[in-house]
Amino acid sequence: MVKVECADIGTLPVPKLADLARLAEKVLRAELPKPRQKEMGRINLVFCENAFVRDLNKRFRKLDKVTDVLSFNYDDEDVFGEIYIATVKAQQQAPRWKNSFYDELKRLVVHGALHLAGYDHGNGKDRKAMRAREDLHLGL
Asked: What gap in Å lies between CA 31 and CA 115, rounded to an integer?
């Protein structure tokens, strides 16, 4: 059973945390095979400051910059994975995608969950496939 736990540890209040957790659960239920879902641990969905995500990005990806979302897949029986979303970055970039802050958070939750499900966007073909899955889950 897919179980997502949310934490808002940033200074920018995140609206509708429970709805965002349910969205991540919905994406993972749709994207992961049922037998795998039964064995997986929880997913931590963490909304945090830009500096926190920048530090993670620097430590684990060797990129010293803020990114909007990072996903870590542990595939452990206790913790399947974690999704970190930089809320200020999300708020700043929302107009670029013609999104409200909340809609941008939804987009990033779906994006992070797809990474946990095994999607990547390292090349044009993969990017197109991942974008199509994002649009599907967002009802676009």
From this structure: 10
pLDDT at 38 over 90: no
Length of the chain: 140
Task: Judge whether residue 34 has pLDDT over 80.
Answer: yes
Q: Label residue 35 by pLDDT band (50, 70, 90).
A: confident
Tokens (6 digits) for 71: 């996903």
User: Sign of the C-alpha dihedral, residues 39, 112, 43, 140?
Assistant: negative
Structure tokens at 14: 């995140």
What span, in angstroms and rounded, lies between the C-alpha atoms of 117 and 64? 26
pLDDT for the residue numbered 59: 98
CB 113 within 8 A of CB 136: no
pTM exceeds cut of 0.85:
yes
- The CATH number that applies at residue 95 is 3.40.390.30
Q: How many domains does the chain have?
A: 1
Q: Which domain holds residue 96?
A: 4-138
Assigned token pair, 39: 């064995």
